[in-house]
Amino acid sequence: MDLGYMRRTLLFVTLLVASCEDEGQVQQPPGSTLAFDNAWVRPLVAGGSVTAAYCDIRNQGREAVRISGFSSDDPDVRVELHESSEEGGIVRMRPLENLTIPAGETVSLAPGGKHLMLFGFDDSPEVMLYAALEDGLRLPVVFTARDKVER
Ligand SMILES: [Cu+2]
To answer: Which listed CATH number (2.60.40.10, 2.60.40.1890, 1.10.10.10, 3.40.50.80) goes with 26-145?
Structure first.
């Protein structure tokens, strides 16, 4: 095989990996088949303390993973797993007991759908939440403040 081609390919792959890391978006906690991408939190409306947080949860494993909830180390912050749905033009939210990420699939927490609700949020530019898995693992995920989805 042509060595120059291989070098160029290798360089391309290296750049690709480097640029992904620079994004700071992909977080794969050790010991888990889950990866969290595009984790963001909506800044507070003036005077408020409740907001929503979103991310894409990718399961790279061969078995489904069930998340039993999210939490914060800050005792003033409570986190709930919700799902929004629209019926007859009215948007409703209901709490979800857990969230299953099927093997090899991605579940998106996104505006208008499943999301995390933060109560007592202090509007910091970054918030660390923990995903509690049913098998006992607790995975840290950093959510960065962002006004809207950039895609
Ligand atoms: Cu909600």
So the answer is: 2.60.40.1890
